[in-house]
Each structure stands twice: as structure tokens, then as C-alpha cells.
Write a structure and sequence with these properties.
The structure is a single chain. By secondary structure, this protein is of the alpha/beta class. It has helices spanning 29-32, 80-86, 124-134, 154-160, 179-190, 201-213, 224-227; strands at 6-18, 21-27, 40-43, 56-64, 70-75, 93-100, 112-118, 138-145, 163-168, 175-176, 194-198, 218-221, 241-245, 251-255, 262-264. It has 7 helices and 15 strands. Helix 4 links the parallel strand 8 and strand 9 (163-168). [2Fe-2S] cluster binds at residues 232, 237, 240, 257.
């Protein structure tokens, strides 16, 4: 089996409404057989003659052997491109590239794993959960959102997880509060050895911070960087860069699509997102007066 991504015309099997989101199942055997949890796919939007050149990138919720191999993605209808996708019907064709990006790293031995998600991004945790279970790991979930309709996969998490903690800011599902508030107790109760996160950037920042406080490694999928404005998915457009502290101590601007989307949480410079830190490799230099040739008399 090759790790090389493929481009294919995928057939839409179903598009269904799930709470505030849409779940699209595509028949794409070549992509399904190559997929590893944490990777994503890039879908062309607008049809054959569209002026929308930028693809939409989504993590994969589930891969099945049905119809030779299907791939299911979950997304919010937030722009013209995703609106077009949500309007597809059975037997429509969608141009699809995948699987793309770096997957989650899996534990070598059976350990206790805490999977933390929010919004549609949390869908990517379920393929990971299945793989971890098959490796003999314990799988615990913490899922959160603003309201019950924003928490994707709550019933599935309760069914397949060894434990599942649900939290909403308005109290319509599970505990009233935020993931940040319930996460420390979840770590203690589950005896977690590693924390995985996928969802909004603010959630990933909290996951990383709290995991570090408990001395735990964290892996986070920065999918939101691929979805905010659309992205090429292959590292060319450079719209999804973020500062990352490397093993050698040097900060580099990495691409969420090609160098991620799964990254070590403790290596992401969360406080510098949206900027190029002055100490990053290749960062623009600010010239001093003397260097600019404008020294005072």
C-alpha cells in the first residue's frame, strides 16, 4: 500500500444533516485503503466550471469497506464552498484528493488515551479511537461545544469510549462549562498517559497547556488552519502556516497541511499564532537606523 495521495472523482453516497453539521460519505476506494487516522482530504467545490479554485479540507470521520471503500467527512456550512458541498446528492461526483498530511502517532504499548474534541473537528477522533482500541488501548473522550447541537459524536463517544465526558457552555448537554474546566479531572480520573486533541484552536491551546501541567505528551490536529479560508492541502498556497518550535530549538513556520495537521502540542507557539516571530528562521529583519543608512548627524 502506497502512502502517496491520489486524486479521484469520488461518487457521493449520502449527505445527511447531523445536528449543526453535514456528514458526506464518498465512494473512494484508493483513498480509503491508504488512510491513517489524523490525515485529511481536500474536496474541489463549485463543479467543473466554477471560479472557486481553492479546495475545502476536512479530517476524516470514518472509513469503511462498503462499496469497495468509503470515506466520510463532517463539516459546517460556513461559506459558499461548503454550501455547495452540502447541496450534493447521491451519485453526484466530487473531485477528491487524499489522504493528505501527517497522521496521529500511535502508542507502542497499550496505554490510557484521552481524546479531546470540539465542533465538527472532533469527528477526526473516532477513526483514531477505533485504531487505538484495536491496539488494546483504553479510550476516553472529552467532547465540548457551545450547545448540544455543536457537540459532534456525543452518542458515539458514550457507546465506544471506556468513558465519555460531555460539556456545553449553555448546559444543554452534559456538564455546564468548557473543556478547559473539565479536562483536569478527566485526566486524573482516567489515568491518561497521552492526550489527543482536535477542534477549534482555542481548545487545542487549552489541551496542550493542561496536558503539559500534568507532564503528559499531547498531539493536536490543527485542522482549523486548513478550513478558515480554504487551502490547497498540499503545501503550495502557504495560507496555513504557524510557528513551531523544532527539536533543534529553532522556530520555523510550518504548514498545517504538509507538516501537520497533527503536531506536538507543546511545540506549537500558541501565543504567536497569526504572526512570524522575530526569532523564527527566515523571519524578516527590522533594519536599525545605521543599517538603513539613515544615521543621525
Amino acid at each position: 500500500m502506497s502512502d502517496t495521495p491520489v486524486q479521484t472523482s469520488a461518487t457521493v453516497l449520502t449527505v445527511r444533516q447531523v445536528q449543526d453539521y453535514h456528514a458526506m460519505t464518498l465512494v473512494a476506494p484508493a483513498i480509503a485503503e491508504r488512510f491513517r487516522p489524523g490525515q485529511f482530504v481536500a474536496l474541489a467545490v463549485g463543479g467543473e466550471h466554477t471560479s472557486r479554485l481553492v479546495r475545502r479540507c476536512f479530517g476524516v470521520y470514518e472509513v469503511k469497506s462498503d462499496y469497495g471503500g468509503t470515506v466520510e467527512v463532517v463539516f459546517a456550512d460556513r461559506d459558499a464552498g461548503t454550501a455547495w458541498l452540502s447541496g450534493r446528492r447521491a451519485r453526484d461526483q466530487v473531485d477528491l484528493v487524499g489522504p493528505l498530511g501527517r497522521p496521529f502517532r500511535l502508542p507502542r504499548d497499550p496505554v490510557s488515551c484521552l481524546l479531546v474534541g470540539g465542533g465538527p473537528g472532533g469527528a477526526s477522533l473516532f477513526a483514531l479511537a477505533d485504531t487505538l482500541h484495536r491496539r488494546g488501548c483504553q479510550v476516553h473522550f472529552v467532547l465540548g461545544g457551545g450547545s448540544a447541537r455543536e457537540v459532534f459524536g456525543s452518542r458515539m463517544a458514550q457507546r465506544i469510549g471506556d468513558t465519555a465526558v460531555l460539556t456545553t457552555e449553555d448546559g444543554t448537554l452534559g456538564d455546564k462549562g468548557t473543556v478547559r474546566e473539565v479536562l483536569p479531572k478527566a485526566i486524573q480520573d482516567t489515568g491518561a498517559d497521552v492526550v489527543y486533541g482536535c477542534g477549534p484552536t482555542r481548545l487545542l491551546r487549552s489541551v496542550t497547556s493542561i496536558a503539559s501541567e500534568y507532564g503528559l505528551p499531547s498531539q493536536v490536529s490543527v485542522e482549523e488552519f486548513l478550513q478558515e479560508t480554504g487551502a490547497c492541502g498540499i503545501g503550495v498556497c502557504m495560507t496555513c502556516v504557524l510557528p513551531f518550535h523544532g527539536d533543534d530549538g529553532v522556530t520555523r513556520m510550518v504548514r498545517a497541511c504538509a507538516d501537520g495537521p497533527v503536531l506536538r502540542g507543546d511545540r506549537v507557539r500558541w501565543g504567536d499564532l497569526g504572526t512570524i516571530p522575530f526569532d523564527a528562521l527566515g523571519a524578516p529583519r527590522v533594519l536599525s537606523v545605521s543599517e538603513g543608512g539613515g544615521a543621525s548627524r
